[in-house]
């Protein structure tokens, strides 16, 4: 698996356990295709814009926990958010988290081949390590390069995906410049014992199996999930001569218990092991490239109701990941990283709003070796950071205000202060306008600071950003529409442009963009549209940032007919600036459009059949210059419920 992409970044992902709903009772409110202008216009006509109805309780009651670390109604969050539920995951039949997220508002994916190969996620045009990815609120990025591995995050184990677009550093600390993605694993919710088994098979020798069990008795909830996936894949390089396969096996266990109505304890463990093939190793001379890895996530939280207006949450977590590569039959290096985290947060519910005060601390360490390391490897292989933060939310009639501030101290590069303020005004019961301004930062990773290859720079400063945003949204009974316009300025970007490719703070970038989201949900038909226009610019060169398009969109439509469901997805992107995989010169990767179909049939209450056909027209396109993507792909399966 490659470690870096051409601009020195790779994929990133990472929050805090989703605690149960006791908070909600105290919520103030609850008391060959290029995406041309013509194509965008055609898609836009599909957005419902002339329908009127009463407010929908389903939409208004969608709850998310990621934006401010406490459960809130989605309409009360003064940020651009999206929640992907388990029902939607099942309906879309996405093969991976990457497929589920591709082309949603503000999100672009670049991957150098099939599953297991290097994957980069760009949120709102920011760098691939500017998105904080969490599992049950805990960071999962590798401590060496600050990047999460998507192959360790199986969709079969995820109950919901919460996306927050825009900076959240004043809530979470480092890395949340572009946004936050929180993956909440499956747990028991329905009283009694329940089991679900899914078996699927598809093209390219693909097989997937998953078993889910849950039991809920009185105040105790227990769930377990076991999953396995394997595929022969396809050649990662467009010049390759052999398929690059992938295999992953894992399990998750989650337990929670309510102690009367005074406290809730939640414990979880998740482990995934993978094997993968890739191309272009041994300095691009070999296809004989393999790797294996594992990731373990342990998390626990205790929510205590100290009095009717005061809650305290204590959380602890440990993550450990390891991966080892072999290139042309020779050892290519091993990296094992571990992270321990502990946090305490107090939430006070008053007549004038909700005040949250908290402190968190994390320690990271590395155990790495490789044939190309200089003597001694990493000069420093550990770090720790402590953050203190406060968040205040208030609603007075039609006025909503949220403000937060945080102080972070990292023993390897220094301290940083970030903050943010958001304000919204309810024009009507269903319509709202607002604005926000926030700062954020990205801490240098251990490779930047103390590279084992001899090119580290311990004097690096953090990358810093400011983001201004305005928004308008309308929520009706069957449909919704929202528009967000933003500008993000990033300074002191870390670039490997110093002597002997030493990283230095030099680059500046500015991303301006507009996101449109719209959807309709009727008794039988549901339609969701996401469109993004952006201008991701390197201000030092005036050029478009690499692997980021100026326009991309996604349209999902589903229709229910008795026990049948039919659906389709159209996703597309304009061309992107890139680096030629063979000559390393600047180039452009063409735009694309991909059309997917899916269906499922509830044969009987406990038996469901499903099938999908991805890339129906067998579109030949690339997300990264010189690397293949999935051609026409068929997959079907059966789910048994007990």
UniProtKB/TrEMBL annotation:
Primary location class: membrane
Source organism of the structure: Cobetia crustatorum
A Pfam family recorded for this sequence: Plug
Localization per Swiss-Prot or TrEMBL: Cell outer membrane
Alphabetized UniProt keyword annotations: Cell outer membrane, Ion transport, Membrane, Receptor, Signal, TonB box, Transmembrane, Transmembrane beta strand, Transport
Name of this protein: TonB-dependent receptor
Motif (TonB box): 62-68
Family designation: Belongs to the TonB-dependent receptor family.
An annotated GO BP: cobalamin transport
